[in-house]
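Sample log: Cytidine deaminase.
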Amino acid sequence: MSEKRKRRLSLVEINEQQLFDVANHAMKNAYAPYSHYQVGAAILCDDQKVYSGVNVENASFGLTNCAERTAIFKAVSEGAKSVKAIVITNSTKELSKPCGACRQVMSEFMGPEDIVFLANNQNDYQKYTFKEILPLAFSDEDMN
């Protein structure tokens, strides 16, 4: 394992509980009057800053924004460009699973070995690399 990879993993481990706490706390602010499916996300960026996001529904469902994208867009709007880890949790006993749009946005800011935690309201979770949840990500390299 390379030194860079070790450093990245230890950074995630140091902040793992904080990420879960931030995601769970954020979920309480989700705006989900239609689905009643509340989602919270917390991301750790390469500068060690943590950002949160929630799902924000709209009566015109196509305008709904997911928690993952909310957190990433918030981070990018404040200057972050690289997400090292994300925790996604929800208000049910099922593990969260990011939609295709969120996975594509995540691919813009996460590397294949960055960490994704999918969690539920029972504090159960599964840990994945980003490549495991989107093995054939479309990227800028596909446009060359």
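Observation: The chain has one domain: 12-142.
Observation: The helical segments are 3-27, 67-77, 100-109, 130-133.
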